[in-house]
């Protein structure tokens, strides 16, 4: 009874991007099942500024920090609240959850069983006459009344028999049929008027009903496996319990209103659907273009993705999209709405990971294998901060197959950390001049140039190849990445499948590395990005390796964006460096000699990349290809950006269909397939080998 007493106090409430957080006086009315708030305690006797029905609501502690939590009402309305500390948050969350459970169960008790009742909307609605009028007092709980059976407490649940599974399957089939009728009835409503198909309550209803049926199907699948294990004594070797693949075609759901902005590609012929990664590549038929760095100019655009307005305005579209998705579902073929896009291609995002070229070049200046590995780890961990644009989680454009991106950086030699013992020999200098193709007699440049090229080498699955080199320092990096996205409920996970290879040709060393997973969290409120997973860096020649863990925030407590790692010598298993901190703010490196180094990423200088003007770019270069989409997004014209984006995607589908009909394989421009990976057609290690061979023959 103590837990059902009314509680009250001040909490901070998030209003919008402009107003931000504001203190408000909240009252939990347990008897009525209401959460009310007032401007302050003195105005408590007045009408509440806002009220939420807690029956059917979901109370969720936020994973952003230990103070924030959300109250998601069944009506679709949401309060984002913040307590003064973790203890106060737990107090409010516990009381709200108790009150919510009490009133939700009360509704269930008052409703008849499922078999004797059908969905009120589904039984009345039709294509021509919806026949549904909402009373002012109706909310989503009363609008969607479905009873449920409760197991009697205190009794042992018997082991489910096969006939019981048949009964459950029959009941679920009935529920699935009713849910389909509900969806059809909602989609038959007009797009304007008193009650529309885009009503936020109805969109929330579609989303939650679809998610409920998906979860029930998954639970039924687990019950079947459990029953099979009881029959045989244990699960068969190698059996895994995982989320099922979706049974409903997405294309059938995207029909009305704003949902047309993101059609799925699932209705294509099977021959067009896949460009298999393992297909035999053809030789390069499109002549690779040699980009002259002197034609490139310093980039003048610096788009920060901190604008949340469009996301809040289009919340109904996000809800409609979520109603079509399923836990664990691959999002590769789901075309996302335009307003959540960044103003750059994924290929350009990979280039932005190179925004600290001074740290990249300094790797090869290390005087020992140990120092070079540590410098690579330092560079690796500092690359992700600038790769993200702002705190808001938005998605870069999906590159079109054949799309390319070129840029370069110029780094004054005086700004690159050197080593006193790394004096280059005259022979080494002569090789650099030869490789740089400097004309005879030209004075040596006072800056290093790092050149970058990326290409989308496959569309399904989406694979990108990128390559960067510094000819003067005889170092290059080659990587291929397959981005695989999955829907995880209130977040989206992106797995970066692939491998990178850093070559330090002066030392004959190669470093292999992988990339962490990325997660877009809180996609219905203020979406934000975190990295997660373990990555490894290895150098086979020297025997040094690094293990780095990107930690996702735990459900309760803990810090955001935490990273830890260590560098060790494999032969002796000796740890020579440890690192901890946050990948987007402050990193602490502790070395074996006891010294400590701090790197503040927010103060680390960023070198702007150099890009050719649009008029000099080819038609398939990222910025020229997406220029109309980018300009429309900068102008805030979402509809126009969507039109341009759809035209590009339709052109890609038509070309893909034509290649399938004529059985013409796709030919890449800059990257060649080697084994399971993709390699730049003219990597520096081949150029250096050719020059050294030529010099040997000459001598």
Automatic annotation (TrEMBL):
Q: Extract the ranges annotated as region (Disordered).
A: 104-136
GO terms for cellular component: cytosol; endosome; Golgi apparatus; membrane
Q: Name one GO biological process term.
A: lipid transport
**A Gene Ontology MF term for this entry?**
sterol binding
The UniProt record lists the PH domain at 4-101
Keyword Transmembrane helix part of the UniProt annotation: no
Q: Which domain of life is it from?
A: Eukaryota
UniProtKB keywords: Acetylation, Endosome, Golgi apparatus, Lipid transport, Lipid-binding, Membrane, Transport
Biased composition, class Polar residues, residue ranges: 117-136
- Is the keyword Membrane assigned to this protein? yes
> Where, per UniProt, does this protein localize?
Endomembrane system; Endosome; Golgi apparatus
> Which SMART domains does this UniProt record tie to the protein?
PH
Annotated Pfam families? Oxysterol_BP, PH
**InterPro entries attached to this UniProt entry:** OSBP_sf, Oxysterol-bd, Oxysterol-bd_CS, PH-like_dom_sf, PH_domain
Functionally, this protein is described as follows: Plays a role in regulating ADIPOQ and FABP4 levels in differentiating adipocytes and is also involved in regulation of adipocyte triglyceride storage. Weakly binds 25-hydroxycholesterol. Interacts with OSBPL9 to function as lipid transfer proteins.
Family stated for the protein in its record:
Belongs to the OSBP family.
- Subunit structure as annotated in this protein's UniProt entry: Heterodimer with OSBPL9.
Q: What is this protein called?
A: Oxysterol-binding protein
Q: Identify the taxonomic lineage of the organism of origin.
A: Eukaryota, Metazoa, Chordata, Craniata, Vertebrata
């Amino acid at each position: 009874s103590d837990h059902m007493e009314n509680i009250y106090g001040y909490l901070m409430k998030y209003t919008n991007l402009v107003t931000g957080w504001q203190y408000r006086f909240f009252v939990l009315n347990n008897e009525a099942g209401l959460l009310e708030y007032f401007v302050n305690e003195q105005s408590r006797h007045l009408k509440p500024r806002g009220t939420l029905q807690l029956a059917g609501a979901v109370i969720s502690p936020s994973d952003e920090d230990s103070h924030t939590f959300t109250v998601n009402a069944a009506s679709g309305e949401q309060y984002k609240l913040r307590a003064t500390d973790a203890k106060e948050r737990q107090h409010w969350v516990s009381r709200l959850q108790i009150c919510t459970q009490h009133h939700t169960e009360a509704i269930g008790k008052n409703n008849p069983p499922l078999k004797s009742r059908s969905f009120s909307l589904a039984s009345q609605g039709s294509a021509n006459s919806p026949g549904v009028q909402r009373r002012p007092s109706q909310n989503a709980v009363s609008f969607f009344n479905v009873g449920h059976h409760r197991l009697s407490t205190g009794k042992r649940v018997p082991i489910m028999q096969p006939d019981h599974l048949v009964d459950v399957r029959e009941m679920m089939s009935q529920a699935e049929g009713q849910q389909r009728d509900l969806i059809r009835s909602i989609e038959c409503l007009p797009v304007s008027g008193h009650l529309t198909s885009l009503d936020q309550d109805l969109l929330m209803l579609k989303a939650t009903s679809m998610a409920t049926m998906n979860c029930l199907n998954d639970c039924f699948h687990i019950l079947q496996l459990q029953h099979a294990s009881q029959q045989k004594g244990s699960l068969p070797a190698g059996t895994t319990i995982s989320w099922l693949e979706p049974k409903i075609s997405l294309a059938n759901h995207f029909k009305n209103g704003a949902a047309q902005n993101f059609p799925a590609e699932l209705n294509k012929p099977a021959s067009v659907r896949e460009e298999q990664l393992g297909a035999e590549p053809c030789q390069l038929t499109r002549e690779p273009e040699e980009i002259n760095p002197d034609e490139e100019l310093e980039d003048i655009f610096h788009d920060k993705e901190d604008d949340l307005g469009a996301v809040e305005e289009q919340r109904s579209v996000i809800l409609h999209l979520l109603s079509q998705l399923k836990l664990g579902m691959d999002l590769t073929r789901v075309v996302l709405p335009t307003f959540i896009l960044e103003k750059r291609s994924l290929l350009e995002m990979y280039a932005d990971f190179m925004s600290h070229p001074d740290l990249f070049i300094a790797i090869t200046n290390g005087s020992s294998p140990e120092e070079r590995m540590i410098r690579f780890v330092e560079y690796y961990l500092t690359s992700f901060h600038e790769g993200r644009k702002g705190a808001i989680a938005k998605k870069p454009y999906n590159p079109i197959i054949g799309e390319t991106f070129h840029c370069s950086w110029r780094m004054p030699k005086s700004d690159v950390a050197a080593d006193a013992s790394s004096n280059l020999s005259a022979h080494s200098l002569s090789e650099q001049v030869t490789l740089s193709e400097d004309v005879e007699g030209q004075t040596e440049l006072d800056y290093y140039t790092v050149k970058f090229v990326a290409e989308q080498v496959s569309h399904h699955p989406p694979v990108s190849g990128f390559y960067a080199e510094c000819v003067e320092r005889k170092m290059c990096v080659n990587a291929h990445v397959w981005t695989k996205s999955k829907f995880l409920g209130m977040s989206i996970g992106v797995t970066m499948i692939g491998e990178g290879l850093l070559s330090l040709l002066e030392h004959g060393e190669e470093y292999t590395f992988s990339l962490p997973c990325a997660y877009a969290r809180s996609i219905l409120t203020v979406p934000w990005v975190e990295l997660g997973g373990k990555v490894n860096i290895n150098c086979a020649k020297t025997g040094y390796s690094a293990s780095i863990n990107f930690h996702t925030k735990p459900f309760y407590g803990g810090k955001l964006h935490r990273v830890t790692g260590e560098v060790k010598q494999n032969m002796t298993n000796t740890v020579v460096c440890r690192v901890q901190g946050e990948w987007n703010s402050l990193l602490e490196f502790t070395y074996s000699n006891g010294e400590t180094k701090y790197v503040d990423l927010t103060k680390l200088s960023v070198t702007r990349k150099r890009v050719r003007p649009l008029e000099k770019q080819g038609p398939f270069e990222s910025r020229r290809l997406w220029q109309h989409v980018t300009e429309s997004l900068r102008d805030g014209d979402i509809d126009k950006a969507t039109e341009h984006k759809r035209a590009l995607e339709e052109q890609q589908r038509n070309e893909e269909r034509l290649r399938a009909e004529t059985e013409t394989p796709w030919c890449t421009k800059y990257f060649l397939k080697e084994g399971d990976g993709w390699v730049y057609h003219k990597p520096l290690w081949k150029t250096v080998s050719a020059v050294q061979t030529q010099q040997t023959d000459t001598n």
